[in-house]
Amino acid sequence: MMIKPFENQHEKSWVYCKALSYLYSDFFDDISRTKDNFTDFYEDSIELVALDGDIVVGLLDIGIYSRENSRAYAYYSCDKVAYFANLAVHPDYQGQGIANQLFERAEILLREKGVEALAIFTRDDEKANHLYQKWGAEVISRDWLVVGTPKSQEQSFTFQVLPEQKRLAFVTEDGELPYYQREGYYIVAKEKDLELFEIEKVYEERTYLKRYH
Protein backbone atom coordinates (compact mmCIF):
# COMPACT_ATOMS: atom_id res chain seq x y z
CA MET A 1 0.00 0.00 0.00
CA MET A 2 1.40 3.40 -1.04
CA ILE A 3 0.31 6.96 -0.21
CA LYS A 4 0.78 9.59 -2.89
CA PRO A 5 -0.85 12.76 -4.27
CA PHE A 6 -4.08 12.31 -6.21
CA GLU A 7 -3.74 12.22 -10.01
CA ASN A 8 -6.52 12.44 -12.58
CA GLN A 9 -6.28 8.76 -13.52
CA HIS A 10 -7.32 7.89 -9.96
CA GLU A 11 -10.70 9.64 -10.20
CA LYS A 12 -12.97 6.68 -11.02
CA SER A 13 -11.39 4.54 -8.31
CA TRP A 14 -11.54 7.53 -5.92
CA VAL A 15 -15.30 7.86 -6.49
CA TYR A 16 -15.82 4.13 -5.89
CA CYS A 17 -13.77 4.20 -2.69
CA LYS A 18 -15.65 7.16 -1.23
CA ALA A 19 -19.07 5.78 -2.23
CA LEU A 20 -18.42 2.37 -0.68
CA SER A 21 -16.96 3.89 2.48
CA TYR A 22 -19.86 6.29 3.00
CA LEU A 23 -22.72 4.02 1.86
CA TYR A 24 -23.62 2.53 5.25
CA SER A 25 -22.25 5.38 7.36
CA ASP A 26 -23.85 8.57 8.74
CA PHE A 27 -22.43 10.32 5.64
CA PHE A 28 -24.47 8.27 3.13
CA ASP A 29 -25.82 11.43 1.44
CA ASP A 30 -22.35 12.85 0.67
CA ILE A 31 -21.68 10.78 -2.44
CA SER A 32 -20.90 12.23 -5.89
CA ARG A 33 -19.98 10.95 -9.36
CA THR A 34 -16.86 13.13 -9.64
CA LYS A 35 -14.05 14.09 -7.32
CA ASP A 36 -14.31 17.41 -5.49
CA ASN A 37 -12.08 20.19 -6.77
CA PHE A 38 -10.74 23.12 -4.77
CA THR A 39 -11.37 26.38 -6.60
CA ASP A 40 -13.44 29.48 -5.72
CA PHE A 41 -12.65 30.03 -2.02
CA TYR A 42 -9.36 28.13 -1.90
CA GLU A 43 -5.78 29.01 -2.72
CA ASP A 44 -4.31 25.54 -2.24
CA SER A 45 -5.21 21.96 -1.35
CA ILE A 46 -3.84 18.66 -0.07
CA GLU A 47 -5.24 15.70 -1.99
CA LEU A 48 -3.88 12.28 -1.06
CA VAL A 49 -4.76 8.70 -1.95
CA ALA A 50 -3.74 5.33 -0.55
CA LEU A 51 -3.17 2.85 -3.37
CA ASP A 52 -3.17 -0.92 -3.49
CA GLY A 53 -1.65 -1.34 -6.92
CA ASP A 54 -3.72 1.02 -9.07
CA ILE A 55 -6.80 0.87 -6.81
CA VAL A 56 -7.68 3.71 -4.45
CA VAL A 57 -8.33 2.17 -1.03
CA GLY A 58 -8.16 5.38 0.99
CA LEU A 59 -8.38 9.11 0.35
CA LEU A 60 -8.04 12.42 2.16
CA ASP A 61 -8.77 15.92 0.86
CA ILE A 62 -8.10 19.21 2.61
CA GLY A 63 -8.80 22.61 1.06
CA ILE A 64 -6.79 25.64 2.16
CA TYR A 65 -8.69 28.92 2.07
CA SER A 66 -7.27 32.15 0.69
CA ARG A 67 -6.23 34.78 3.24
CA GLU A 68 -9.37 36.82 2.58
CA ASN A 69 -11.66 33.84 3.11
CA SER A 70 -9.63 32.60 6.08
CA ARG A 71 -10.03 35.92 7.86
CA ALA A 72 -13.78 35.92 7.12
CA TYR A 73 -14.24 32.29 8.24
CA ALA A 74 -16.93 32.22 10.94
CA TYR A 75 -15.61 29.14 12.72
CA TYR A 76 -12.07 30.48 13.20
CA SER A 77 -10.64 33.70 11.81
CA CYS A 78 -6.90 33.67 11.00
CA ASP A 79 -4.57 34.20 8.04
CA LYS A 80 -4.66 30.60 6.81
CA VAL A 81 -7.35 28.10 7.75
CA ALA A 82 -7.94 24.72 6.10
CA TYR A 83 -11.14 22.72 5.60
CA PHE A 84 -11.14 18.93 6.01
CA ALA A 85 -13.24 17.96 3.00
CA ASN A 86 -13.02 14.17 2.56
CA LEU A 87 -11.73 11.13 4.42
CA ALA A 88 -12.65 7.61 3.31
CA VAL A 89 -11.22 4.11 3.51
CA HIS A 90 -12.55 1.25 1.39
CA PRO A 91 -14.58 -1.13 3.62
CA ASP A 92 -12.28 -4.07 2.79
CA TYR A 93 -9.25 -2.10 4.05
CA GLN A 94 -10.63 -0.52 7.22
CA GLY A 95 -8.93 -1.23 10.52
CA GLN A 96 -5.43 -1.23 8.98
CA GLY A 97 -4.39 2.29 10.00
CA ILE A 98 -4.80 3.80 6.54
CA ALA A 99 -6.66 6.89 7.80
CA ASN A 100 -3.88 7.54 10.31
CA GLN A 101 -1.21 7.24 7.62
CA LEU A 102 -3.08 9.62 5.33
CA PHE A 103 -3.47 12.20 8.09
CA GLU A 104 0.15 11.92 9.20
CA ARG A 105 1.24 12.73 5.66
CA ALA A 106 -1.29 15.56 5.40
CA GLU A 107 -0.18 17.13 8.69
CA ILE A 108 3.40 17.39 7.46
CA LEU A 109 2.10 19.32 4.45
CA LEU A 110 -0.24 21.49 6.56
CA ARG A 111 2.67 22.60 8.70
CA GLU A 112 4.90 23.18 5.67
CA LYS A 113 2.19 25.37 4.11
CA GLY A 114 1.81 27.45 7.28
CA VAL A 115 -1.78 26.47 8.02
CA GLU A 116 -2.87 27.88 11.38
CA ALA A 117 -6.01 25.82 11.96
CA LEU A 118 -7.88 22.89 10.44
CA ALA A 119 -11.70 22.80 10.62
CA ILE A 120 -13.36 19.38 10.58
CA PHE A 121 -17.11 18.76 10.28
CA THR A 122 -18.56 15.38 11.12
CA ARG A 123 -21.70 13.67 12.33
CA ASP A 124 -22.27 11.46 15.35
CA ASP A 125 -20.15 8.67 13.91
CA GLU A 126 -18.19 6.93 16.67
CA LYS A 127 -15.16 5.98 14.55
CA ALA A 128 -14.83 9.39 12.93
CA ASN A 129 -15.15 11.28 16.21
CA HIS A 130 -12.63 8.97 17.87
CA LEU A 131 -10.11 9.66 15.10
CA TYR A 132 -10.47 13.44 15.22
CA GLN A 133 -10.11 13.49 19.00
CA LYS A 134 -7.09 11.19 18.76
CA TRP A 135 -5.54 13.61 16.26
CA GLY A 136 -5.85 16.46 18.77
CA ALA A 137 -8.89 18.30 17.39
CA GLU A 138 -11.34 19.94 19.82
CA VAL A 139 -15.10 20.30 19.45
CA ILE A 140 -16.01 23.98 19.00
CA SER A 141 -19.72 23.63 18.19
CA ARG A 142 -22.59 21.16 17.87
CA ASP A 143 -25.82 21.34 15.90
CA TRP A 144 -28.48 18.97 14.61
CA LEU A 145 -29.55 18.10 11.05
CA VAL A 146 -33.29 17.46 10.94
CA VAL A 147 -35.34 15.81 8.22
CA GLY A 148 -38.91 16.77 9.00
CA THR A 149 -41.49 19.53 9.05
CA PRO A 150 -41.19 22.68 11.19
CA LYS A 151 -44.22 23.75 13.19
CA SER A 152 -43.76 27.44 12.27
CA GLN A 153 -42.44 29.58 9.37
CA GLU A 154 -38.77 30.45 8.87
CA GLN A 155 -37.21 33.96 8.98
CA SER A 156 -34.03 35.49 7.57
CA PHE A 157 -30.99 35.55 9.89
CA THR A 158 -27.25 36.17 10.36
CA PHE A 159 -25.05 33.10 10.91
CA GLN A 160 -22.73 33.20 13.91
CA VAL A 161 -20.46 30.79 15.83
CA LEU A 162 -20.38 31.02 19.63
CA PRO A 163 -17.13 29.26 20.68
CA GLU A 164 -17.64 29.88 24.40
CA GLN A 165 -20.96 27.99 24.22
CA LYS A 166 -19.68 25.50 21.63
CA ARG A 167 -22.65 26.07 19.33
CA LEU A 168 -24.00 28.00 16.36
CA ALA A 169 -26.44 30.93 16.44
CA PHE A 170 -28.92 32.18 13.81
CA VAL A 171 -29.56 35.81 14.76
CA THR A 172 -32.33 38.16 13.57
CA GLU A 173 -33.18 41.72 14.57
CA ASP A 174 -35.71 40.29 17.00
CA GLY A 175 -33.45 37.71 18.62
CA GLU A 176 -32.20 34.22 17.79
CA LEU A 177 -33.80 31.71 15.44
CA PRO A 178 -33.90 28.07 16.53
CA TYR A 179 -33.12 26.66 13.05
CA TYR A 180 -32.62 27.26 9.31
CA GLN A 181 -32.81 25.11 6.18
CA ARG A 182 -29.76 23.94 4.18
CA GLU A 183 -29.58 21.35 1.39
CA GLY A 184 -32.73 19.52 2.44
CA TYR A 185 -31.97 19.60 6.18
CA TYR A 186 -33.06 21.95 8.92
CA ILE A 187 -30.04 23.03 10.97
CA VAL A 188 -30.91 23.31 14.66
CA ALA A 189 -28.55 25.11 17.05
CA LYS A 190 -29.97 23.96 20.40
CA GLU A 191 -31.03 20.41 21.20
CA LYS A 192 -34.15 21.58 23.04
CA ASP A 193 -35.45 23.17 19.82
CA LEU A 194 -35.81 19.76 18.17
CA GLU A 195 -39.28 19.78 19.73
CA LEU A 196 -40.28 22.42 17.14
CA PHE A 197 -40.35 19.71 14.44
CA GLU A 198 -42.27 16.71 13.34
CA ILE A 199 -39.07 14.68 12.92
CA GLU A 200 -38.46 11.87 10.45
CA LYS A 201 -34.69 11.63 11.12
CA VAL A 202 -32.14 13.65 13.03
CA TYR A 203 -28.32 13.63 12.94
CA GLU A 204 -25.97 15.30 15.39
CA GLU A 205 -23.25 17.31 13.66
CA ARG A 206 -19.99 18.34 15.34
CA THR A 207 -17.39 20.88 14.31
CA TYR A 208 -13.79 20.24 15.36
CA LEU A 209 -10.84 22.58 15.20
CA LYS A 210 -7.18 21.66 15.35
CA ARG A 211 -4.84 24.61 15.88
CA TYR A 212 -1.26 24.64 14.58
CA HIS A 213 -0.18 28.11 15.80
TrEMBL record:
GO terms for molecular function: acyltransferase activity. The keyword Transferase applies. InterPro entries: Acyl_CoA_acyltransferase, Bact_Acetyltransf, GNAT_dom. It holds the Pfam family Acetyltransf_1. Keywords: Acyltransferase, Transferase. PANTHER family: AMINOALKYLPHOSPHONATE N-ACETYLTRANSFERASE-RELATED-RELATED. Its EC number is 2.3.-.-. This is GNAT family N-acetyltransferase. It comes from the Bacteria. Residues 1-169 form the N-acetyltransferase domain.
